[in-house]
Design a protein that fits this description.
The complex is a heterodimer of chains A (868) and B (127). With 868 residues, chain A is an alpha/beta fold. Helices cover 30% and strands 19% of the residues of chain A. Chain B has 127 residues and is mainly beta. The chains are: A alpha/beta (868), B mainly beta (127). At the A-B interface, helix 11, helix 15 and helix 16 of A face strand 2, strand 5 and strand 6 of B. The structure holds flavin-adenine dinucleotide and iron/sulfur cluster. The site of iron/sulfur cluster (SF4) has 13 residues of chain A, from loops.
Amino acid sequence: MSPTSRSLLDGENIVVIGGGMTAHRLAESLQQQDPDGTWSLTVIGDEPFEPYDRVHLSEWFAHRDAGALAMDLEVWQDPRTTLITGDSVAALDRKAGVVTTRSGHQVSYDRAVLATGSWAWTPRAEGTDLPGAFTYRTMADVERIEEWVRLRGKALGRQVRGVVVGGGVLGLEAAAALQSLGAAATVVEFTDYLMSAQLDQGGGEMLRLLVEDLGMTIRTGVGATRFLPAGDGPVGTAELSDGSSLPADVVVFSVGIRPRDRVARESGLAIGERGGVVVGRSCQTSDPAVWAIGECASFDGVTAGLIAPGNDMADVVVDRFLGGERVHSRVDEGTKLKGVGSVDAASFGDVNALGAGALEVSFVDPIHRQYRKLVVSDDAKTLLGGVFVGDIELYAALRPLLGRPLGADPAAVIAPDGGGAVDLELPDDAVVCSCQNVTAGTVRGAVTEHGCTTIGQVKECTKAGTVCGSCVPALTKLLNAELEKSGVEVSDALCEHFAMSRAELFRIISEEDLGTFSEVVAAHGTGRGCAICRPTVASILSSLTGRHLLEGEASALQDTNDHVMANMQRNGTYSVIPRMPGGEVRPEQLLEFAQVAQDYGLYVHITGAQRLGMFGAQLGDLPDIWRRLVAVGFESGHAYGKSLRNIKTCVGQMWCRFGVQDSTTMAVKLEMRYRGLRSPHKLKFGVSGCARECAEARGKDVGIIATHKGWNLYIGGNGGANPVHAQLLVEDVDDEHLVKYIDRYLMLYIREADRLQRTAPWVAEREGGLDELRRVIVEDSLGIGEELEAAVQEHVDCYEDEWKVTLEDPEQLKKFVTFINAPGVADPDLAFVPERGQIRPAGEADPITYHDPRAARDAATATPQETR
Amino acid sequence: MSDLVDVCALTDLEPERGVGALLGGHQVAVFRLADDTVRAVQQLDPYSGANVIARGLVGTTRVAQDDGPERDVATVTTPMLKQVWNLETGAVIDSGGKPKKPLAVFRAEVRDGRVLVADAPEAPVEA
Ligand SMILES: Cc1cc2nc3c(=O)[nH]c(=O)nc-3n(C[C@H](O)[C@H](O)[C@H](O)COP(=O)(O)OP(=O)(O)OC[C@H]3O[C@@H](n4cnc5c(N)ncnc54)[C@H](O)[C@@H]3O)c2cc1C
Ligand code: SF4
């Protein structure tokens, strides 16, 4: 190591007291910031678990698996880091620089960090210590609550009646958790309305309606004064301040938190008036060798109750340890309710318009259970706060604008369907990538100061978009806006080889009637292309000519999924997903499907697209597997392609009591029509047999809902990372017009959209929006309706099952080998392990693995023999 | 020095695609380029840990040279997480924001219509 890269911390011992969320953050960030430092870090936590994601504690009830909540465990593999769990720090001796744990273990330190968090407060009232009364803070709490409700229900032989004391965000989360355990839940809130610390009265009332819809009982304006035991000892009744009482077989307190500052207090550190270890902007306590982060620290007299400030404090401490100057500051993070069914509520800023001259503009719709309020300055220009209940779409867009010009008429912003009218510019400190906590300002800086001009460079420079990737469209917008500002002409170039957009290229290829990639790249591009333009050109050629994807040169344009007509999985094996139109599958097909899975040791799963899939197929086995499937009438489901995936449907009028049209037959008909149609992104359809919408059609690119008179057609919806509801294009159309309009809509999208642009953003960004699209599609204002329908018809006429064609062509079958010089040999590195009677790919941590998937599967029931 | 091993006929390979080959202990990805020359790199994708590089898309990128005009070099993009490498040197061209992990390069040539590949990698490139 060169002398300049020596770290300030080299040779030092750091001890972290408390093993929760911020302790984890500190360890992780220290390792990242100082990969070569020679310090040693000891984290001591009293809970018997590795640090876990407390924010998502309620999710434990969904999977009941403590391990699933653990935060990145790799942090504890770093040889410089020691994690002690299940032992608490009893004393901090600052003179000697030593901490002592309850079990007598001593650790000396050069620097100590307090990260002890909070404990949940229990009101001072009679009976709060009865069996059956709990707090809601730790993994142990949720495990005990689950066990109690289960056993108490058995003992009582009826539904358990629960009382949650406290109607804030956590109280409501706890009440929903009780309901998920099958208990009834009554929430008792001392103030006049729910979430009173965050919402205004109107918002609180709307929230009450929403949670009552979920079956909760809400009692506001009363406190719980005492808890009385049932005949057999545990809690049985809660008495309230208005003299009434409630049955209470289980009680959960959620009435606030208090910082855990006892160890700090006893060691003589300065403690805030309302508790918490006093720290300054550097997060140092009154002893420069001791620091405090997270909920146990008192900053400006306030302790935090959210994770974001705690993480920032951890980052500040690491920066300071390494000689930096970073300071901690607090911004209004806003608050958002979570974990209570699909009920949404969120707010930020001055929700009660307490500031001088503040004005309120609100929208209330008790029928659709929506409440929105903006608080603005007296000139109606500056945004001071907002409350959103029922529909919080605007919350994320508006929160970053707190204290800044709103740039639009507040009434227009919150009016129904008004949000679209406002195109809000993100302020610099708005977080765009929440995985990596990167702000809009940092992304802009990457362009202006570090000279990034491509999305790849921005990612490398800022780390934004490198975890889940869902922010990449937002990053692209920021990048392009910044480039435009600095005078760089923003190209909509597809990639380095083609200077035009996908839509432009589509037009050129179609007008010049080009047939191969070589022709296209020679005439309009450079070099031999890349992983972006090759599949794009392939998709365009395929939509224009309807030719088989693997014919001739086109074969080298397809990424591996399209090339071998299967979707690659994380270990290099493939999935096999035949089409099951309308979700239908015949018993004899099912038998062969099962036999194939059995013979090859494949994992079977019902996919999210209403059909069956097999996973783990090896390249060399794909043709034999498909030969057997094709023989019983299956065909490619195109689960690998940017094309129609499936059409989700319900059983409609055929079976369902409510159905008003035959949705299944319509779905089958449409799936047979559009199967294999190559498009800029995957396409999903839904067809529901009545307005109950069991097929969730409005979450699809094409949504069809039956009416008494025909069909309603919705377009431009999707699920995924940014769900969008499809919008109504036409009402009550007959079968023939339905198909006509879908033809026109799809072909238009295929022609015009950008690469990887789904229909929702295409519809939203198209000039004139939905109204203009309706003119083009329904009124045929451009006179291209017939041409678009003909293009689809040509595709339908030329359609052939790709797998069937391939199986008949010995040339094409050649490529299904793992090793060209050792046919029949499987990838020796493949390894599987048993999982619930089937298989999954082995991970690093799996001690015993199997090369043969069948052996892995059989090991689920037998003792392991063949190991690697 | 490594030995050249006969792997297959040039015509067994599709232009601008790769195949996997087993050479002693090494899994190698062998590519036929548009000009009918061949390249070989390690089959293991260092980012995903799967043996899939041969199934990536071949292309080109324009690079500046120290001593002359820009030229096109052949590239491969892993099908897994889309990192891109220079097929001649194994150097990373686009790491997708991750640390750079180069590929080992194997000497490869066409002789009398047969594809020959070295049974051991060349010295690693500077990352
Ligand atoms: C149900 C629930 C939902 C939440 N939802 C949200 C949310 O949506 N958004 C949000 O921002 N925040 C939320 N929070 C708050 C968030 O979890 C906390 O802000 C965060 O955990 C604070 O981190 P911390 O490290 O300060 O404390 P903690 O994560 O509590 O960690 C402190 C740890 O130190 C241990 N400890 C204490 N004293 C000692 C000692 N003397 N010796 C050894 N170990 C000790 C504790 O047992 C604990 O394990 C939620 C909390 C709960 C309980
Ligand atoms: S959408 Fe209507 S017809 Fe279809 S299953 Fe649901 S209730 Fe029945």
